[in-house]
Amino acid sequence: MSANGRPDMTGSIRTGIPHWIGDALVGLALAGGGAVLVALSLPIPRGEIGNPGPGFLPLVLGLVLVGLGIGCAVRAWRAHVGAGVVLAERKAVVCVVALFGAALAFVPFGFVPTMAIFLAVLFGVLASMPWWRAALAGGVASIAVWFWFERLLGLSLPAGVVGF
Amino acid sequence: MSSFGYLLDGFAVALTARNLLLCFAGCLWGTAVGVLPGLGPLAGMALLLPLTFKLDPTGAVIMLAGIFNGAMYGGSTTSILMRIPGEAASVVTCLDGYEMAKKGRAGAALTIAALGSFVGGTFSIIGLMAIGPVLADAMLTVGPAAEFVLMLTALIVVSAVSNSPPVKTLTMIVVGLALGMVGLDPLTAWPRFTFGSLDMTDGINFVALSIGLFGVSEILLTLDEKIPVVPKAPRWRDLPPTREEFRQATPAVLRGSVIGFLFGLVPGVSHIISTFVSYAVEKKISKTPEAFGTGAVAGVAGPETANNATTGASMIPLMVLGIPAIPATAILLSALLIHGVQPGPLMMSEHPQVFWGLIASLYLGNIILVVLNLPLVSIFVTLLRTPMGILAPLVLTVCLIGVYSVKASPLDLVVVAVSGVAGYLLRKFAYDVAPLLLAFVLADRLELSFRRALTISDGDYAIFVQGPAVKVFLAILLVVGVLQAAAVWLGYRTRTS
User: If you measure CA to CA, which chain B residue comes closest to A85?
Assistant: First the structure.
């Protein structure tokens, strides 16, 4: 998609936002992470300054992270390079979605069906295979990988719904 | 027993058929991941780390060290043939290596790189043997306060030498320390940030975090890049350098060995910096500096030697101080801890077979790589022809299997996905994620030594500036600070990057 929301010829997803805004957002996200760390550290006993408890260092680190995250964001804002950038390629986005799907389905559905779908999707998108070839390659590859790791190397992979 | 006697024992351990095979397999896999753009030593080691759990500690470390060594070697192949560094430390080799290849001297460049790597690796191993035991004895007298200052110094040095802006590197260090706080408190066993999950009481799985940050993010970043056409591999008869090329390479190799070894002792991205320094030195003292960038032999020999000389040297902070100087040694540290071996000053006396077996295997690995790299260069070039669309899904599958095989925990699979995406975004915006991993590994010990020191001193913070060891580490910190300020003042480095 291009900046105006229409697909472009390269198949990339363009955010349309300048690099510095993305950079600043990452800095703010880190500062937000620091704030969450502070909030989560407050209920943990902090002890005294000369005898710190389990909550002392996390609290200090959270506060420092808030400061550094804001520092990163300010630094990005001051750099202010205005050109738009490709934040994420279509292929990378598909890869991330497939990875999260596989991570969540790995145990409940079992190794072979999960990885067959995972590999088929990625072969189809990344290697631009026709769907039937991607599905076939995904199925064969998942069984081959299962055989290699489970049977030959003796690793225990999740059986899931189909039993292997 | 003398160091030499222990080394002979180490060779007896490393030369068993099983350990030789593990060393060979590690070198082979390491060279393959070093050759493939997008996969470096870290990803290669992280991917095979779970498979080493079934081995004894010596075998595991020998295999991982083989991968590390192999990846350092393999990175030079793509640098010379395609002007693509297989890993960051091979960037400088592109400058003259590729120019030599364009002139039809690719074979000679590969041979010089392999022989230089062999000499550099050997030099660093001798240095490791000489310095390691002495430093270990000295470290036995160090208390928790000095240990805390030492680890803090290591992290600050990492932020000073990182390629990223200091504020971003410091942020990554703090994130790494914060992630290291997850799990049971090491002193009171208070559950921190576990959200009631039993899985989380052990903390965040190092393997999942490292595979996500380096393996998965590397694959995602590589998808954005375009891989150029793969060239033909050089023929056998093109491999030997001419007498003149040998003459030019020899002094550069010797200088590169010393530079690489010295930089390998410094925590951070020493293996990368040493190559740049070596290149700068060679160019500076050359009678024909204008030849650099157009195919100068010393421009390949020096950096490639320095690159591999850091390998052995970077083992010194790990084995003697228990501090991983570079991310790859953080993975070695993790493997040792998983096998119940705590690297540090006591390692040589408590686990001599692991320590000296590793040193001997590093040496054998160097020989295996010289024998392996040159004859198999055409096979490794063929590997480059594998389309990324096929390779990436298979590598991601191995990532998931590798992480799952550690604890069979579904949570770890989510950790690898989250850390992969986080690593991808952070690296897109010039955050160096290596310090994050180093800080994560050190977090536990850092907190423990901090709180123990305060208990000993009855809450007096002056303990962190007292004692000879502490003063030495603080002096190092001061020197780093002065050098950093001088670099900014002289214009080598801007205040922000």
Answer: B428
Q: Provide the percentage of residues in chain B whose pLDDT is more than 70.
A: 91
The alpha carbon of residue A155 is apart from the nearest alpha carbon of chain B, in Å, by 7
The DSSP secondary structure of B342-399, one letter per residue, reads --STTHHHH-HHHHHHHHHHHHHHHHHHHHHHTTTHHHHHHHTTS-HHHHHHHHHHHH
Contact flag B397-A87 (C-beta cutoff 8 Å): no
Give the number of domains in chain B. 1
CA separation for the pair B19, B16 (Å, rounded): 5
Q: What is the ipTM of this complex?
A: 0.86
CA distances from B151 to B148, B284, B318, B334 (A): 5, 35, 12, 17
d(CA B67, CA B59): 12
Q: How far is CA B47 from CA A10, B89, B208, B214, B324, in A?
A: 32, 20, 10, 10, 19
Q: B167: which chain A residues are within 8 Å (Cβ-Cβ)?
A: 68, 71-72, 75
Mutate to test the interface with B, among A10, A23, A123, A126 (most CBs of B within 10 A): A126
What's the N-to-C CA distance of chain B in angstroms? 49
User: Which domain, by its residues, includes B343?
Assistant: 3-143+205-407
* Biggest CA pair distance of chain B: 72
* Rg (chain A; Cα; Å): 23
pLDDT-based confidence at A88, cuts 50/70/90?
low
Contacts of A79 in chain B (CB under 8 A): 496
* Of the partner residues A54, A104, A126, the one whose CB lies closest to the CB of residue B388: A126
Which of A26, A106, A127 has its CB closest to that of B413?
A: A106
pLDDT at B238: 74
CB contact under 8 A, B167 and A68: yes
Distance, in Å, from the CA atom of A70 to the CA atom of A72, rounded to the nearest integer, reads: 5
Q: What are the pLDDT digits (tens) for B417-442? A: 999 999 998 988 888 888 898 889 88
Distance CA A44, CA B23 (A): 46
Surface of B (113-172) touching A: CB under 8 A:
165, 167-168, 170-171
Q: What is the pLDDT of residues B290-303, one digit of tens each?
A: 888 888 889 889 98
Query: Does B420 sit within 8 Å of A96, measured CB to CB?
Result: yes
Q: Which residues of B touch A33 (CB under 8 A)?
A: 175, 178
- The SS3 of residue B8 is helix
- Asked whether B40 and B83 are in contact (CB, 8 A), the reply is no
